[in-house]
Amino acid sequence: MSDTRPQRPRIPRRAVHGVLLLDKPVGLSSNDALQKAKRLYRAEKAGHTGTLDPLASGLLPLCFGAATKFSQASLDADKRYLATLQLGQTRRGGDLEGEVLVTRPVNVTREALRTACERFSGEIEQVPPMHSALKHEGKALYEYARAGVEVEREPRRVTIHAIDIVDGDHDRWTLDVRCSKGTYIRTLAEDIGEALGCGAHLAALRRTGSGALTLDQAVTLDALEAMDEAQRDAQLLSADALLADCPLVRLDAENAARFLAGMRRRLALADAQQVRVFGPEPKAFLGAGHIVAGELISTRLLSPTEVQGLVVNDRTERTA
Fold this sequence. Notes:
Blueprint: E1 12-14, E2 18-24, H1 30-41, E3 46-48, E4 57-64, H2 71-76, E5 79-87, E6 89-91, E7 100-103, H3 110-118, E8 122-126, E9 135-136, E10 139-140, H4 141-146, E11 156-169, E12 172-179, H5 185-196, E13 200-210, E14 213-214, H6 221-225, H7 229-233, E15 248-250, H8 253-260, E16 265-266, E17 272-278, E18 285-292, E19 295-301, H9 304-309, E20 317-319
């Protein structure tokens, strides 16, 4: 018997290369946001650079095509957040969505909060929250939490570069937090609350920076939907945007070809843990490397076709 059900129209996909700085809304998972953007771009390949909880909004760099090769740079980058703390209530999971566990009176001044924040500046240890994507025996911790199972977690070392008070009064304060990768802001909120003696939970979270990338460059999904394809393409940054805080090395045509072939190049340059490497043309990004004892060594390369394809309005299409 033949299948008479209506067939979904096939969406023509195309090769898209670049980095989209998305302003993710509250209530949407990072993967849901990625899939929506991928459909809008009709992109063959896409990935994000680390999750933002559905509770959180803000900067979510998305990688398309060749840019996915460099997503780790953004994963490893320092982050910046605006975190709103609600004092006086401890909640399950450490955020606004959890049930209230303990309520305590609040008598906190700006100076007392500043002193508490100073205790958590620098390198500290955090116990990952149960409501996190960290894996235990192949399952995310939040899956255990939803089943009511508590799993023992080892403390992890993170670095808090700075905590500044942005705004607030009495029991609700907004902090500007600059931190290393892997920092759990909801845990930081709870720890600050305990240091103040009144408890706290994370009422709102907005990511404002990831490495050299900032929220003021980002675009919303609603804005993307209102654009035509050419306007969307114009929102994409070059794949090397994820390495924007790394030194730039430019090679002549001969050395560029050899570098793309994986050959080491001897250059009169200082050692560097990571550099972004370009050929002689202004937009000819070749890949990432590092420099040791005057040798440029590749760590992640584009293919020659990807180098050519980094023009973001590439119209090459296929049927998916």
